[in-house]
Amino acid sequence: MNYYGISNVITWDVGDLNNTGETIELRASDQTLMDVVSYSSSSPWPSAANGQGPSLELIHPDLDNSLVENWMASIAELGTPGAQNSVYGYEKVTVIAPNGGETFYTGTSTNIQWSRVNYSGNLKIELLDGESVVQLLANNIPAVNESWSWAIADNQSVGTTFKIRISDVEDGEPMDESDGFFAIATASNPTIKVLSPNGGEVITQGVTYDITWSTVDYQGTVLIELLTSTKK
Questions:
Q1: What is the pLDDT of residues 168-222, one digit of tens each?
Q2: What is the pLDDT of residues 147-158, one digit of tens each?
């Protein structure tokens, strides 16, 4: 602590912290457990805090320190021991879906999903084509919902370079976008057409006859039924 010129910190005389992770307990003088945290140097824990200069900091003292998403590598090199954490008050939202590689169809619905850290404001949700905003999909959506149902219009423009952006409605921060592009395509109209028998044939009992059909935009299974006049 002489390096930092401070004395208002907890110190110990024996041992040191394991660089790869361990469990730390904070106990009162009567051994009452006051706090405990188990940290790691492996993903999803912040890799920058693993001997690269930054320290591991809790974003806010009121957050659950057992959840890895509430920790960050310090913004200040070597951290801020004896003072407020350098990442105090940090807010984050992360687009979970769609996050790239999906194909959606006009006239259908899908859920836009996100996660959040230390943020409970209202979001706007935008559709990007490439890097340009082409449509405001929703506004003033509570971040705590962590999901919003997007009804893709029948006349929605189609393409392969779409992304979703979510951001705070007031100042745009925090903000995140889909990691990769997703596609929107025109909904198909699958059809099945009976080729044979298709009327006029005479089929003899005891003889095998091929029933054939063609399909357009359909790869599922079919049910074959025998109809007598207009009845099954």
A1: 999 999 999 999 999 999 887 788 999 999 988 999 989 999 999 998 877 789 9
A2: 999 999 999 999
How does pLDDT run across 50-106, given as a tens digit for each residue? 766 788 888 888 888 888 888 888 888 877 777 888 888 888 899 999 999 999 999
Distance CA 57, CA 72 (A): 5
Task: Write the CB contacts of 61 (distance below 8 Å, at least 6 apart in sequence).
Answer: none
In this structure, what are the phi and psi dihedrals at residue 12, rounded to the nearest 5 degrees?
-145, 160
Share the mean pLDDT of the chain.
Answer: 87
Tokens representing 128 are 């990007």
CA distances from 9 to 80, 143, 154 (A): 11, 36, 62
Report d(CA 118, CA 141) in Å as an integer: 16
H/E/C letters for each residue in 207-219? Answer: CCCCCEEEEECCC
Paired sense of beta strands 182-185 and 103-105, if any? parallel
Q: How many Cβ atoms from other residues are within 10 Å of residue 93's Cβ?
A: 21
- Asked if pLDDT for residue 3 goes beyond 70, the answer is no
Structural domains of the chain in order of their starting residue, each with its CATH number? 1-90 (no CATH), 92-185 (2.60.40.10)
In the chain the beta strands, taken as DSSP E runs, fall at 23-27, 33-38, 56-58, 71-73, 92-97, 103-105, 109-117, 122-129, 132-142, 147-151, 159-168, 175-177, 182-185, 191-196, 212-216
Closest CA to 38 of 8, 17, 15, 52: 17
